[in-house]
Amino acid sequence: DSFYKRASNHFERFVEEHKTDVELLDQDIDNIFAVLDWCMQKAQHSEMLNITKNITWFLGIRGMTTERYNYALAGAESARTIGREEESLWMNAFDIGWVLINRGLYAEATSLYNDILSVTEKKGYKRVTAICYRNLALMMRRQPQEKRSETTSKAIIEEARTLTQKSLDIWIEIGDQRGIAIATSTLGTIAM
Description:
Elements: H1 2-18, H2 22-41, H3 45-61, H4 65-81, H5 85-102, H6 106-123, H7 126-142, H8 150-174, H9 177-191
């Protein structure tokens, strides 16, 4: 256990420092998975959360959606367990919901986002609320359109645009430049 404790401390720092260095993360991904599995087995919630929240983007980029989903579930549960509700909700919205959308599980994703929004809107978790609005909008845009009437399609696109605008307004309010850029880009995607 002392080896894994040292390894978890190392990888907490490592993934925080190198979370966008895809080549470097590729080299150590098996070790990172081993540490995450140990964290789950030994209920090392803080370490689990800190590693997971910095690795899920990489897992998505690498197409490791099953790993992204499973580790995000564990990370979100760890966050909830140690009283970090907003981080738990973020992982549910950013990672778990996004995987559901990409798997075409739209009803499950919609239910998850509505559950998250029922909490975030009351508690003022603006970043999580903004990502929920944006992801719901993109999901609406992605759903199969062949069975929709033209009127229905226009209404859905307008609702998606409204949700994205709400997301953009939040990002502007909190001054998150990355969120502003992503929401603005999403407005363009929805218009297509």
